[in-house]
Amino acid sequence: MSSETNEFKKLVGYPTDNVNQYKFSTDHAYKDLQRTLRGIGKNPKSKEAKADCEKALTAFAKKCENGFIKSQEDFDKEHRSLCDQLISIYEKNNFHDFTYGQAQKWINMSMKYLYCFDEKRFGGILPFIHIAIDNYIFDAINTWKGYDEVKFYPWSKLKDYSKYLNFQKWFKEQSDGVPLIEEFKLWRAQRSKEIKE
Known about the structure:
This protein has 9 helices and no strands. It is mostly helical.
């Protein structure tokens, strides 16, 4: 396991005993975007919506693990479909402000947390997996060539999936072909920078 992955796991506080890895990952990913869900606490169906979303997230992760995904095109298609599914679940539960920006954060962080349990779990599709887009990643790459052409603010308000996907394609072109690995390196560098400041 890489030093970046181990550092991330220590910061998060991964359990050392047996745990439902899907539940752990989707719960922690939800916490990463929860502050952007303004008014969700007043919705009496919020727990029901979250539970339904976590089932969909787990099903997606298992597809990725079990050979269902064969190409980047497959992954992108399934990712878009899952984003739409999460948005629809919240719509049906009377929360109408859930966006692609929030959906991608939940999905992509869930995948990142799962990856940290076992770096081999996604096998050959690892290069297809998207990175979570948020202010942290924006701050880490704002000097990269072409960044101004693909950036969008704020990430949590994004309602255009094509802008999201354009960013992912651009990021992959800038990395060594494995965006998630590149993101771990950026996370570590950005965290070190913030600690020094």
